[in-house]
Specification:
single chain; mainly alpha; about 60% helix
Amino acid sequence: MDLPAAHFLLRHMQAAPAWEAMYLHGLLHRIEGDLNNARAWYGDVKESEVFRSVWSGTESGGDDASNQTTSPEAAFQTAKSFLDRVEAYKNSLLSTKSSSGATSSEKYFPGEDELAEVSLWEIRRLLSFCEEKFDTNPVMDASNVWVSMNEKHADKAVQMITGGEGWREF
């Protein structure tokens, strides 16, 4: 599946109580490089069980999903710090490309491997949470989990589809 198709599907699951889909929407923005939108979506779900399950206890190096002692704000700050580091990495790649005309594979960003590890760790924890909550059996009729867009998001979707705003570029 491509990113635009995934983004389209998540747009139709972006209001409470679809916390897991809202979190996936934020994670998709991170993967796309749209870090401001990722921060916004992470902020929208920071009080949710799924977000706390992924990020709670991580500031002390914990990897125990059952550790829910961290406040939602502390979990959000840890996730936001990760997004800030991803943004610094992205900016370093852009500045290297603009200063040399091409990206150098020789350049190494401090913590590049750790960023990749944390990225995969976040995805695995999110998927694990969803598998535990929803199982992995096929859903033949998802009409009972459909959530209508809130007004803000519906207006944005209309602008993108029929209002001439078009595809966003990051």
